[in-house]
Amino acid sequence: MKARTAVLTTAAALAVAISLGVTVASAGPEKIEYPKGYQSKFVSFGQIDRYENATVRILYASPEAVTNYKLGQKLPDGTMLLIEARPAKKGADGKPLLDANGRFMPEDQILGVFVQQKRKGWATEYPENIRNPDWEYAVFDIDGTRRANVNTQPCMSCHKPRATDDYTFVFNRVMADSKNAADMKTMAGKKKM
Amino acid sequence: MLLGGKALYRAALAAALSAGVALGLGADFARAASEIKVGMGGAAYAPKAIKAKVGDTIAFTNDDFTDHWVYVPTLGYQVSRAGLKQGETFKLVVAKPGSFDVGCAVHANMWATVTVER
User: Fold this and answer.
1) Model confidence, pTM
2) Fewer CB atoms near the end CB (10 Å): N or C, chain A?
3) Helix residue spans in B1-118 (DSSP H)
4) Facing residue for B79 by CB, picked from A51, A174, A177
5) Complex confidence, ipTM
6) How far is CA B48 from the centre of its chain?
């Protein structure tokens, strides 16, 4: 009888542990859905030439993030910012080729799609020293396949010092320029979600 | 009409002066690109207001005791060079006139402004 009780107790505890485990595993990058068709639906806010690894990051924002942006305020709930990473075209010497404006030229190949999204109440499960309140991160292949084994906590750690720009490196800075913001709002108005 | 004496001397002098001015202007047009040195000591860019001409190179040297980034968020000029270690230099050739900000990803108050003229 005691042995049976012990087995049942262990099984119940295991079930609870597995259940909790599943909850923890699904409480993170899995919250973010891949934004299918982002290249036509989102607004591009630039291209970063990454000299440290000879790649290009093409930057996109969800249209409502642009249309609802207000200078000096936190970014609106639902904001999705996206990085599309591509290799830079290289010359025979292996160095990135530059265009007339001194910019890298991206290859057609897409190395990965990196997404950060903001939803009220997100990210509470992370330690305070890395948490970006309300922001979650995920990585996808271009076909929308989620990269399940990617640890996104380095994303949070890197964005952590940018609290004054609502945990963004570029978007807030681009939007803070009134001309850019006006141009981008015009572009966002032409997009349909 | 043939020039002689003082008139010939004046004409020669004027021609030499004109050639000198032209050469001088030419030298200005073909100005050699400069390298502008920028430090990062104490988690601060020095100088903070950087002036350059198109074609110049800005050499950011990490003369601090901790890693820094060079990243530019300004639309049309966006670049990054992550993890610049102590003693390392990142050289950026500026090819487009305008103005842009330079920051460090890990030090939120570390900023400089670059103004590029033709």
Assistant:
1) 0.80
2) N
3) 6-29
4) A51
5) 0.80
6) 14
